[in-house]
Automatic annotation (TrEMBL), chains A, B:
It is an enzyme of class 2 (transferase). This is Thiamine-monophosphate kinase. Mg(2+) 4 binds at residues 43, 57, 88. It comes from Aureicoccus marinus. ATP binds at residues 118, 135-136, 162, 241. Pfam families: AIRS. Mg(2+) 2 binds at residues 59, 88. Keywords: ATP-binding, Kinase, Magnesium, Metal-binding, Nucleotide-binding, Thiamine biosynthesis, Transferase. One of its GO terms (biological process) is thiamine biosynthetic process. PANTHER family: THIAMINE-MONOPHOSPHATE KINASE. It comes from the Bacteria. Mg(2+) 5 binds at residue 242. Belongs to the thiamine-monophosphate kinase family.
C-alpha cells in the first residue's frame, strides 16, 4: 500500500514534532475568504461572518467503518472529507466559508501519506473557496480517524431548514442517484478479485462515472447558486448522504407531512441501470437506498415550478401530502408502498 | 471496568440506530445561549454571533494517547473534553458560545457508558453556559476517539493574540502550575499498584488537589471576566496545555521577543512541592514542563500592574525582553538558563 511505512525513502511522522507536523502539512493553505481574519497558528481562528446566520456542521470518518484505504486513494479521501461537510452547508442553502480538520493516524502512516491526504483536502478548499482555519494531527492506536467541522453562512431569509415544507409543495432532487453506491460495489468486487489474484488488472473504464461518484463526490454548491439565480427559495432542504428514501422520510417527519414519490421520476444515470442489472439489483432500490450521492433534496412552492422546469440539473420527483398519508412510493404500475429508511448504522457494520 | 459490555443489564450501542442514538444522548441538552438559533437536528446548526469576532478551535483526544480509561472516569472525560476546548477560547480573551462533539467508540462501549460521557459533557456546557449544537456518534475499530470543536466570540478590540506582546511588558500567569501533571503521576502509580494487587485500596486523599487538577480541570473563563472587570486588556495570551516552558516560548516566538522568567515567582501549590519530593522530582521542573493545567499565560503593559497587584489569582512571573536575549529562566541563585520546550509529541508516546 502506498501509504504504509515500508519504503526507506519514506518519512516517519514521529520525526517531526506535533507543531512542526501541522505547520508542514498546512503550509500550502492560504486564506482566501474575506471573513477568515486569522487562520491556523493561535489558540483559535478568528472569523467574521458577513451574513446574519452562521452555520456549523461536523462529521467523523473512521477507517474500516466509513472508508477502505484498499481502494480509496488518500488524495481522494482528503477531498471527500471536505466535500461531505461542505454538502451539509449547501443543504441549508448556505455558502461554506471555513473548515477545521483533525486527523488521528497510526504509526504505519508516513509523512508522504499525510501529504497526499492534505493535498486532496486543499484541492477541495480551493474548489469551494473555503479556508482551512484550524485542526489537530495526532496519533491513533489503529487506523485513520478524520474529523472535519465546517462553517458557513447564509442570509436569514435564505437559510433553509428540514422542517418548513408545506402540503402540496413539489419535491425536487438535483443530479442523479445511486451512482456512488454502485461505485462502491464495483470497487469492493475489484478488491476481492485482487485478493485472489494480485496480477489481475482491473478494467474500471466502463464504471468510470460510478467510481468517480464514490471516490470524488461533489457538494452541490452550484445548485445553491442556481436556485439563487432562478430566484427560487426552497422551502425545505436536506442533502442525500444516506439514500433518497431515508432523506425523504427525514423531510416528511421534520415538516410533519407525508409525500408521494414517483418511481418513474427518480433520475437514474444509464450506467446505474446497466450496472444494477450486472449486480442483479433493482435500479430503483439502488437509487432509493444507496447513499453518498450528496445530491440536494428540497421542496418548492407549486408557483415556482415554471422557474425550474426543463432545467437538466433538477427533477421534480413528487409532492408533499398530509402527514396521515405517510411517505409513499408510487410505482410505475401505480401501486403505493410506504417508503422505508434503510438508515445506515455505523455500529452494525462488519469489518 | 464500568464501561465495558459485560453486564447483562447493559445496553449494546448497536441496538439503537445512529439517529436514535444521537437523539437519546443529546436529549438533555437545552439551548441557553441567545446566539444559538438552531441546535442539533438539521444538516447544520444555525448561530448568530453578537460580537464582531467569531472564534473557532478544535481538539482531538484519543484513548491510549491522551487519556487512559483505567483511571479516567467517563463523566470526568466528558467534562474535560469540553473544558480543554473552552480553554482555547479563553486564551483569545473570548467567551465560548457553542460546541460540537464527535465520538467514535468500539463495540465494547455500552449505551450507559456513553451516557456517562455525555453527562459530564453536559455538566461542562451548563457550567460555562455553552450550547452543544452538533456532532456525530459512530463506531471505531479500537477504543474511543473524541473530537470537539468550540465556537466563541469577542469584541474586536478585546481579542488577544499570541503575537502582540511588546518589550518590557509583564508576563503573568493565573492559578498555580504542575498540579495536573503530578495528579497523572499519582494515578499512574495507583494503576500499577492495582495491577499487581487488585485488593489494594488506594488512599488518594492526600493528593486530592492534584487528582482533581488532572481529572476535572477548569477553563479560566473567570480570569477573562476578572480582567474585564479590572479593565486590563492583555496584550498577548495563550493557555497552558503543554507546560509553562513551551507556552512561554510560543509567546516569545509569535511576538518576536525574548523574556526573563523568574523561578522564584512561579506559583506552585504546597501539595505540588511535597508530592514532587515524594516522586523525586524538582517542583520547578514539574511546573515548567508538566502540562494540562489550563491556566492562562499573558502579558500586560507595565502601567496595568497596579490593577492586578495583590490579586490572589494572578502572579507576575517575569517580563518580555528583546528577541536577541532569548527566553530565559532566572534561577533562585540568579543564574540564567535558556527555557526549553519539552513539547508533547503524540507520535512519540508509548502505549
Amino acid at each position: 500500500m502506498e501509504w504504509e511505512n515500508k519504503d526507506r525513502q519514506s518519512t516517519a511522522v514521529s520525526t517531526l514534532g506535533e507543531f512542526a507536523l501541522i505547520e508542514h502539512l498546512t503550509k500550502g493553505f492560504e486564506l482566501q475568504n474575506p471573513g477568515s481574519l486569522v487562520g491556523i497558528g493561535d489558540d483559535a481562528a478568528v472569523i467574521h461572518f458577513q451574513k446574519e446566520h452562521g452555520l456549523i456542521s461536523t462529521d467523523m470518518l473512521v477507517e474500516g467503518v466509513h472508508f477502505d484505504l484498499g481502494y480509496m486513494p488518500l488524495t481522494h479521501l482528503g477531498y471527500k472529507s471536505a466535500v461531505v461537510n461542505i454538502s451539509d452547508i449547501c443543504a441549508m442553502n448556505g455558502r461554506p466559508t471555513q473548515l477545521t480538520l483533525s486527523l488521528a493516524v497510526s504509526n504505519r502512516f508516513t509523512l508522504e501519506a499525510l501529504e497526499h491526504f492534505y493535498d486532496g483536502f486543499a484541492k477541495a478548499c480551493a474548489h469551494y473557496k473555503v479556508d482551512l482555519v484550524g485542526g489537530d494531527t495526532t496519533s491513533s492506536n489503529k487506523g485513520m480517524i478524520i474529523s472535519v467541522t465546517v462553517l458557513g453562512e447564509a442570509e436569514k431569509e435564505k437559510t433553509t431548514y428540514r422542517s418548513k415544507a408545506a402540503d402540496n409543495e413539489l419535491l425536487v432532487v438535483s443530479g442523479d442517484l445511486g451512482g456512488a453506491y454502485l461505485g462502491l460495489q464495483v470497487l469492493e468486487r475489484e478488491k476481492q478479485v485482487f485478493q485472489v489474484n494480485p496480477q489481475h488488472q482491473p478494467d474500471l473504464e466502463p464504471y468510470h462515472y460510478l467510481v468517480e461518484r464514490q471516490l470524488k463526490p461533489e457538494a452541490r454548491l452550484d445548485i445553491v447558486e442556481l436556485l439563487e439565480k432562478l430566484e427560487v427559495q426552497p422551502t425545505a432542504m436536506i442533502d442525500i448522504s444516506d439514500g433518497l428514501s431515508s432523506e425523504v422520510i427525514h423531510l416528511c417527519q421534520n415538516s410533519q407531512l407525508g409525500c408521494q414519490l414517483y418511481e418513474e421520476k427518480i433520475p437514474i444515470d444509464p450506467t446505474v441501470i446497466s450496472t444494477s442489472e450486472e449486480f442483479k439489483m433493482d435500479p430503483t432500490t439502488v437509487a432509493l437506498n444507496g447513499g453518498e450521492d450528496y445530491e440536494l433534496l428540497f421542496t418548492i412552492k407549486q408557483e415556482d415550478f415554471p422557474k425550474i422546469k426543463g432545467n437538466p440539473n433538477l427533477t421534480v420527483i413528487g409532492h408533499m401530502t398530509e402527514a396521515s398519508r405517510g411517505a409513499q412510493l408510487v410505482t410505475r404500475s401505480g401501486e403505493l408502498f410506504p417508503l422505508q429508511a434503510q438508515g445506515w448504522n455505523a455500529f452494525n457494520q462488519e469489518d
